[in-house]
Structures are given as C-alpha cells and as structure tokens.
C-alpha cells in the first residue's frame, strides 16, 4: 500500500467510517473503497457483503482473485437511561462485541455500583453527545420513558444516521413522541425508521428478556444496514 492510501485509510478509521482495501491478487494493484461507494458488478456484491459482515478474505470474481481487507469502526450502543433493561443489556452487548455507554442525568440511577465495567455518564444527553457525537456505527436505545431525557438524543440519532434507533414505550406513547419529534423538525422518513416498541417481538416481559430482544434487533440492523438500498439501486 502506498503512503497516500495508508494515510487515507487511517483518516477514515479515525473518523469512524467504514473502509476497505481491495487488492487484485493477479497484478497486486489495490484500491480503497468506502462504504457507500458505487462498485458495480459481482465485485460490488462481494464488497457489500464484506461491509455488512466485517470479515476480510479472498473472493473470486469472474476468474480473478481479490483480497478484501475490511476496516469497520467498533460498533457502539448508547443507551439513554440507567434502568434495569440497561443493566441487563450492557454485559450482553459487551459479550457480543459492542462498546456500550449509558447516559442518564439521574444520579440515583447512574451509579458505578449498578453499572460495573461500563462507560457511564451521569449527565444530560445533550452535554455528553456534544463531546461524543453519534455516528452511523452507533445504535441508540432510548429507555427512560421521559421525553425530557429521551427526545433530544433520538433526534440526534436520526440526524447522525445511526444504524439503529429504538425507543421504549407503548404505541400510544410512541405516537405522542413522533408528534414532538416532528415539531422539532424530524422528517417523516426519519421518524419511520425508529423501532418502537423497542426490540424484536418475542413476547419479552422481564427487563432481561427485553434486553435480549433489543440486542437481537440491534445485531440484525448492524448486519443488514444498507441492504435494502443496495437491492433497490441494483433493481433500478
């Protein structure tokens, strides 16, 4: 890899953007590909798969061999609310390979004793997110039921293009939430992407079961991100 390509690769990684180096094993030539770049044909299909799976490896396309070296940002889950669901979600998410952060200004809930070995912010979400902004490799789960705490990070997640945005609450509660977010300027398309009630519908009842449902839905969103858009563009 030449110096300029290496500098570009490192800059993309520092900015938490997905990038890969695609090397033609026949002639040794390589190119950097960013997630979202339009790469047509069978090689483009393999590149899309690699971005979703995060797995590097050799692929054969039309009689040529390519090595795909994928660099994905570490996926992150930001949970708004130091609640029982978050207590169960944090250790499970870490086991699944996610970085986890909990944000809750209520200091009675956001304590190290309740969240050992977890990045914890006993501050208002707007203060935390101004220093640690959301991005497309972040999932946001709003879990407090309190609009004063949940609404701003939900809107920030939609604006940042987070790969998953979910919110706890009934359909009635979510309807009122959508009205508030629309009044705050969120688009209809963005609002439709919020998963609410949060988590896969597995009949979860306890906080731990809800956490399982949320984590499963987040993993599904991570591994399928961009898939619908890719299918639509290739069908056009």
UniProtKB/TrEMBL annotation:
It comes from the Bacteria. Gene3D superfamilies: NAD(P)-binding Rossmann-like Domain. Pfam families: XdhC_C. Residues 78-218 form the XdhC Rossmann domain. This is XdhC/CoxF family protein. The lineage of its organism: Bacteria, Pseudomonadati, Pseudomonadota, Alphaproteobacteria, Hyphomicrobiales.
């Amino acid at each position: 890899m030449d110096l300029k390509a290496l500098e570009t690769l490192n800059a993309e990684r520092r900015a938490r953007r997905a990038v890969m180096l695609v090397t033609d094993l026949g002639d040794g030539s390589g190119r950097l590909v960013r997630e979202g770049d339009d790469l047509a044909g069978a090689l483009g299909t393999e590149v899309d798969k690699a971005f979703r799976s995060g797995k590097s490896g050799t692929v054969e396309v039309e009689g040529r061999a390519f090595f795909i070296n994928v660099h994905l940002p570490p996926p992150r889950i930001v949970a708004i609310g130091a609640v029982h669901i978050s207590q169960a979600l944090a250790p499970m998410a870490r086991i699944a390979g996610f970085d986890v952060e909990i944000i809750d200004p209520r200091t009675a809930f956001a304590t190290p004793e309740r969240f050992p070995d977890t990045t914890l912010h006993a501050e208002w979400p707007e203060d935390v997110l101004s220093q640690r902004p959301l991005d497309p490799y972040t999932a946001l789960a709003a879990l407090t039921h309190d609009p004063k705490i949940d609404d701003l990070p939900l809107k920030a997640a939609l604006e940042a293009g987070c790969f998953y945005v979910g919110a706890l609450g009934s359909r009635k509660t979510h309807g009122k939430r959508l009205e508030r977010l629309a009044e705050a300027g969120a688009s209809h398309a963005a609002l439709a992407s919020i998963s609410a009630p949060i988590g896969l519908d597995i009949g979860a009842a306890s906080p731990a079961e809800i956490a399982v449902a949320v984590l499963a839905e987040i993993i599904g969103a991570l591994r399928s991100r961009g898939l619908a858009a890719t299918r639509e563009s290739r069908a056009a």
